[in-house]
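Propose amino acids for all 386 sites.
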């Protein structure tokens, strides 16, 4: 039996994770759940999965949640203390890090320090503090399993191989809803159009990141740390059908890819049950249903965010953390109607230009760089606001 703490249980990844848990009660048990604002769904999850700890983001929501959970044997907590208690619960074997954004940093660090294995969905953790997290993973002897579909594909494609034999990692990208939109048209796209992803159903922030292709930029940085490969060895291919989830090319010219129907339950289940595989209910893949799988290089002039991510990781030090913070603010501002779609890249670029990168020696220093990036990006967004 594996005991899980699921951080971000009411989100897209959290809900899919709980579907896997519900399908395999003989394998998985929920020790702790944590969520942000959706109290109704959270209370239903607590009733169904009976965690010992339930942590809600805002301490102000604790009384309401307690009332909704009256009669249940659960400790309701709030704020960062609650999140950390959920991440470090004594009986927990594995923490599913599925909070969105840099908010995932502190609880994931606490989980590693208390010896928990991590199923990592929160890519912002490795983007902002990759070197610190990979050092902590080694120091505390825990295992880190990728949940992101591309990284799960790479993880599955490198099993049994020496990392020195890898010549290239090829991340695939659907290209999002604006793959065939011209640069001129991009200036006029709406929030609703940007939220309409062709292949994946996800949270709002990552859906916008997919439309700008910042998501792929974050994933390049995530792959750089997870698999310890220099960024020069990471390529991005647009593959609109989202059937090949990523590939690894070896020095002998052989390429190993992982394929499947696009459904996050598959990579989530692999992270939870590794090295075994469990049934997920994901629709089996029938390649004869496809008239063709296509691939091409991304247009970096159109998807400016992807270019910014490559330059952030090349500059290194605090630049990726600042880029990530600026992206979170810019996406939020776009979703609230403050700035236009193309201004997301503008806010990030101007924030990065204003930043003098410096070494980050601790999570505290990462959080300071994150805060600096947020403040700067907020000022720039306000200046641009329509
Ligand atoms: P989401 O917005 O659907 O869910 C986020 C969850 O985190 C919710 O439960 C929310 O209540 C909680 N949360 C947010 N801020 C919080 C805070 N400050 N404290 C406590 N809880 C908080 O997001 P998602 O799409 O599930 O994505 C989660 C993470 O997984 C992101 O980092 C994303 O990039 C990554 N990811 C998602 C997918 C996907 O298919 N959705 C795929 C790959 C990677
Ligand atoms: Mg992904």
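Proposal:
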């Amino acid at each position: 039996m594996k005991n899980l703490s699921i951080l971000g249980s009411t989100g897209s990844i959290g809900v899919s994770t709980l579907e896997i848990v519900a399908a395999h009660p003989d394998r998985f048990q929920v020790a702790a759940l944590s969520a942000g604002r959706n109290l109704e769904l959270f209370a239903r999850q607590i009733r169904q999965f009976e965690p010992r700890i339930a942590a809600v983001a805002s301490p102000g929501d604790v009384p309401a949640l307690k009332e909704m959970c009256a009669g249940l044997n659960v400790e309701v907590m709030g704020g960062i203390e609650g999140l950390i208690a959920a991440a470090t619960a004594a009986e927990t074997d594995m923490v599913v890090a599925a909070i969105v954004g840099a908010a995932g940093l502190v609880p994931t660090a606490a989980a590693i320090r208390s010896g928990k294995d991590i199923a990592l969905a929160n890519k912002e953790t490795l983007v902002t503090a990759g070197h610190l997290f990979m050092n902590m993973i080694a120091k505390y002897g825990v295992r880190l399993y990728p949940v992101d579909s591309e990284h799960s594909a790479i993880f599955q494609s490198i099993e049994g191989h020496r990392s020195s034999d890898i010549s290239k990692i090829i991340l695939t990208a659907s290209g999002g809803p604006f793959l065939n939109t011209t640069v001129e048209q991009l200036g006029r796209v709406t929030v609703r159009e940007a939220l309409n992803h062709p292949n994946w159903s996800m949270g709002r922030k990552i859906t916008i990141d997919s439309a700008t292709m910042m998501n792929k930029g974050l994933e390049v940085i995530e792959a750089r740390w997870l698999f310890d490969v220099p960024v020069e060895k990471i390529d991005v291919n647009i593959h609109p059908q989202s059937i090949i989830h990523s590939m690894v090319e070896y020095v002998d010219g052989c390429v190993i890819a992982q394929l499947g129907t696009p459904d996050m339950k598959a990579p989530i289940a692999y992270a939870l049950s590794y090295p075994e595989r469990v049934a997920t209910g994901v629709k089996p893949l029938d390649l004869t249903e496809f008239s063709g799988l296509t691939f091409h290089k991304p247009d970096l002039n159109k998807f400016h965010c992807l270019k910014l991510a490559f330059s952030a990781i090349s500059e290194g030090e605090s630049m990726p953390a600042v880029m990530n913070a600026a992206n979170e603010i810019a996406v939020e501002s776009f979703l609230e109607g403050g700035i236009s779609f193309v201004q997301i890249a503008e806010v990030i670029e101007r924030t990065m230009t204003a930043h003098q990168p410096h070494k980050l020696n601790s999570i505290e220093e990462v959080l300071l760089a994150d805060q600096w990036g947020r403040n700067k990006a907020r000022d720039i967004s306000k200046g641009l606001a329509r």
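The CA atoms of residues 166 and 250 lie 4 Å apart. The radius of gyration is 20 Å.
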